[in-house]
Amino acid sequence: MSEVMLEVRNLVKEFGVGRHTTRVLDDVNLTVHRGETVGLVGESGSGKSTTARCALRLIEPTSGSVRFEGAEVLDFNRRKLKEYRSQVQMVFQDPYSSLDPRMYVEEIVAEGIRIHRPGMKRDAIRDEVVELLELVGLRPEHLERRPAAFSGGQRQRIGIARALAVKPRLLVCDEPVASLDVSIQAQILNLFADLRKRLGLTMLFIAHDLATVRHLCDHIVVMQSGQVRESGTREQVYGAPADPYTIALMEAVPEPDPIAARKHSADRRAAARAVADNGVSA
């Protein structure tokens, strides 16, 4: 097993004050190893994005621990937090609202480079931005256009290039295809798979359905109502899901053959019963 890059332990997040607090994360545990892609899956409101934002300290957790390569992130001062955020970058869900409409593509992608590598010369930054655009499937002439000139899929590619610009060690992808047309989603998922292979990326990939992460992730964590319901390898979760909620998510994935769908459903439930009978926990 490769070394642990990100480790979340007993994470709790509450919103509100006093008797009017709502617990949105309840004792969440999550581990991401170097070189691994972990899928964090659950329906809307399950706590997936809140978990990621707490891990990046975009919001502060109520209690718990977040460790990055052994260091406690919740203890970081401002300087250490800036360094941490250069190593952990996020690709956001909505490519329409996450890009500043007033900025040119060159400025958007170069912003992180200028912040985290302030001594870099302008021509070198431009050359690197061109390389990043080509890496995500865009062209050099796109440098001098604003986000409004691009489709949703192209805007998400810009967002990915921006995240990669600071050479992060961990990429957190917060439902990056959820706002895209179905015809474009597969292209972006294939791009992530290609980037992982070419750059050796470690990723935490958030999605609301199991179909999205099936061919991309090594390990799956299933959340519901702020709690982890199941965690296991891709083969374990898809082959023998142990939790009824995981089974329900699996059955929500459409299959073109209704006979095969019924057989797969029966197989999953039989596997779950076998796991329960053997006393194996998720």
Automatic annotation (TrEMBL):
Gene Ontology biological process terms, A to Z: transmembrane transport
Q: Which UniProt keywords apply?
A: ATP-binding, Hydrolase, Nucleotide-binding, Transport
Task: Name the Enzyme Commission number(s) assigned to this protein.
Answer: 3.6.3.-
> Has keyword Disulfide bond?
no
Q: Which residues form the ABC transporter domain?
A: 6-250
The enzyme class is: hydrolase
Q: Any keyword Iron?
A: no
Q: Extract the SUPFAM superfamilies matched here.
A: P-loop containing nucleoside triphosphate hydrolases
Q: What molecular functions are annotated in GO for this chain? A: ATP binding; ATP hydrolysis activity
User: Known PANTHER family for this protein?
Assistant: D,D-DIPEPTIDE TRANSPORT ATP-BINDING PROTEIN DDPF-RELATED, TRANSPORT ATP-BINDING PROTEIN
Q: Which family does it belong to?
A: Belongs to the ABC transporter superfamily.
What protein name is recorded for this chain?
ABC transporter ATP-binding protein
Q: Which source organism?
A: Mycolicibacterium tokaiense
